Amino acid sequence: MLKKNVIVKFILAILLIMAIIAISDTRVSAAFRFAMTADTKDDDCSMSGNVGVNPYLDEMVRDMKTLGAQVFLCGGDLVHGGTGGPHGSSQTAQFAKWNELTSAFDGARYMVPGNRDIRPLVCPRSVWQSAFSYLPDNGPAGEQGLNYYVDFGNTRIIASCDQWDTNPDGSTTWPTNQTWVNKDWLEEILTQTENEGFEHIFVLGHTPGHAGDFHRLVAHGVDAYFCGDLHSYVVSRPEGDNTTLQAIVGTGGYRSGSGFLLVEVDGPMVTAKYYKDLNGDGYFLDVADSFVITVPEPTTLTLLSITSVSIFLRRRRQKHN
């Protein structure tokens, strides 16, 4: 009897090890982390010398680095903007200040413009493209730094501009911002991304709902859409459970309420934590929220292993009943 129990335990151990190995084998790509926030413009323009950017932005960048972020995404409204800007600063000066405050970030920085970054006539896209000439130029002609994509292992991040200084036909309606998406390019790059077999797809924009084009992201199985515009933190799945998640993180622009999202991609698993300075110690290292973006589906081997254990145990119970 003792020998039989030893054999049973050995078989169970083998089956459980098979299940663990099967789960581990799904982690085919090295984990990486990226931070995301938006609306880093200064909401308190009375502070002298801030030239339109949250003066505490460098503190958030410091803590993004501490938490191991390799990429920094910003979903628009980097600066206050305007013809003169606070204290007479130009759009160019405000963008320069943003670059200065985020320059200590060791990894890559990727942004899309918001309605304060690009405006008809007074803040043309050319000023943005000149200030952020380091952004990729792999999108449509003339849209460097506006529409582009970057790849990290099993993941593609697509920057999709939804704030413009002209209408699609090139006309302007001053001073109203033009809100639209280059749908042809976005459809093309999403289809290409699926065909190339990327495990995760993230899209970065400025407006919630991506200027009315959110359904396209859902149709292509995008994991999450990151944006701002609203100066708040809201996470939801607008089109239902198990569809594209939308994270509004428009909290980059003032000291007391500032916060950023830290996303970790580890093979098929994607999780996120929202960090703030909750205790007022000057560090954005307090977790205010956490959630799962994507959960891996069980592999066939995992299911077979778990099923085998279940069947084996059921037969054992039946035999002793």
Helix and strand topology:
Elements: H1 2-25, E1 32-37, H2 57-66, E2 71-74, H3 91-102, E3 108-111, H4 125-131, E4 147-152, E5 155-160, E6 163-164, E7 178-179, H5 183-195, E8 200-204, H6 214-219, E9 224-227, E10 233-236, E11 245-249, E12 259-266, E13 269-276, E14 286-294, H7 300-320
Parallel strand pairs: 1-2, 2-3, 5-8, 8-9, 9-11
Antiparallel strand pairs: 1-12, 4-5, 6-7, 10-11, 12-13, 13-14
Helix pairs in contact: 1-7
Task: Tell me what the structure shows.
- With 321 residues, the protein is of the alpha/beta class.
- The chain folds into two domains: 1-26 and 297-321; 29-295, Purple Acid Phosphatase, chain A, domain 2.
- Helix content is 29%, strand content 23%.
- It has helices at 2-25, 57-66, 91-102, 125-131, 183-195, 214-219, 300-320; strands spanning 32-37, 71-74, 108-111, 147-152, 155-160, 163-164, 178-179, 200-204, 224-227, 233-236, 245-249, 259-266, 269-276, 286-294.
- The strands form three sheets. The protein has a six-stranded mixed β-sheet with strand order 3-2-1-12-13-14, covered by helices on one side.
- Helix 6 links the parallel strand 8 (200-204) and strand 9 (224-227).
- Helix 1 (2-25) runs antiparallel to helix 7.
- It is globular.
- The model is unreliable at 16-29 and 299-313 (pLDDT under 50).
Short description:
This protein is of the alpha/beta class and about 325 residues long.
